[in-house]
Amino acid sequence: MSTVKEVLDWIKSLVIALIFAILISIFVFQPYKVDGHSMDPTLYDQERIFVSKLSHTFSYYPDYGDIVIIDSRVERKRSLLDDILENPIFSLIMGTSDTHTFYVKRVIGKPGDVLEFKDHKVYRNGVALDEPYIKEPMEFVSDDKWVVPDGHIFVMGDNRNNSLDSREIGYIPLDHVMGEKLFGNGAAPKQ
């Protein structure tokens, strides 16, 4: 009988550890893998990065220049159920694969910011950004002024000429900012 009790104790310990790991990866800390070249030269395709989920958990804005993970499905609301079902640990247990697209991008604008794209540069509130981390001068230009609405951010990839970002998908709702890069192989200065 002591063998059965010992096995049950092990199973109980493993289940508790698994629940704890899922909670940490949903609310605190999670690894991600960069998919694509939109953040070259700062981050590279298939590079692993570690992300703080605290900004998502407590709904606060990341800083200018922060590298963030975003849910690109900006046309829909997110819920806690999304966070649970899209969690890699839960997906592994359930045998599901992530069919959604999460992007790694840099924060360029926050609510109220006026963004302009001219002279191969990004202007925020009339001031050209100093962006030593971008791969090459940006080809994108626009005569429009983009005003970031309340509850949203504007993100761009460091490889401006090869990035699907807020210029195409729109402003990113705060609840679609999944977290901020803590560390990985690549590093870039904050503004």
TrEMBL record:
<keyword id="KW-0645">Protease</keyword>
<keyword id="KW-0378">Hydrolase</keyword>
<keyword id="KW-1133">Transmembrane helix</keyword>
<dbReference type="InterPro" id="IPR000223">
    <property type="entry name" value="Pept_S26A_signal_pept_1"/>
</dbReference>
<dbReference type="InterPro" id="IPR036286">
    <property type="entry name" value="LexA/Signal_pep-like_sf"/>
</dbReference>
<feature type="active site">
    <location>
        <position position="38"/>
    </location>
</feature>
<protein>
    <recommendedName>
        <fullName>Signal peptidase I</fullName>
        <ecNumber>3.4.21.89</ecNumber>
    </recommendedName>
</protein>
<dbReference type="GO" id="GO:0006465">
    <property type="term" value="P:signal peptide processing"/>
</dbReference>
<dbReference type="InterPro" id="IPR019758">
    <property type="entry name" value="Pept_S26A_signal_pept_1_CS"/>
</dbReference>
<dbReference type="InterPro" id="IPR019756">
    <property type="entry name" value="Pept_S26A_signal_pept_1_Ser-AS"/>
</dbReference>
<dbReference type="GO" id="GO:0005886">
    <property type="term" value="C:plasma membrane"/>
</dbReference>
<feature type="active site">
    <location>
        <position position="105"/>
    </location>
</feature>
<keyword id="KW-0812">Transmembrane</keyword>
<dbReference type="Pfam" id="PF10502">
    <property type="entry name" value="Peptidase_S26"/>
</dbReference>
<dbReference type="GO" id="GO:0004252">
    <property type="term" value="F:serine-type endopeptidase activity"/>
</dbReference>
<comment type="similarity">
    <text>Belongs to the peptidase S26 family.</text>
</comment>
<dbReference type="InterPro" id="IPR019533">
    <property type="entry name" value="Peptidase_S26"/>
</dbReference>
<feature type="domain" description="Peptidase S26">
    <location>
        <begin position="8"/>
        <end position="181"/>
    </location>
</feature>
<dbReference type="GO" id="GO:0009003">
    <property type="term" value="F:signal peptidase activity"/>
</dbReference>
<dbReference type="InterPro" id="IPR019757">
    <property type="entry name" value="Pept_S26A_signal_pept_1_Lys-AS"/>
</dbReference>
<feature type="transmembrane region" description="Helical">
    <location>
        <begin position="12"/>
        <end position="29"/>
    </location>
</feature>
<keyword id="KW-0472">Membrane</keyword>
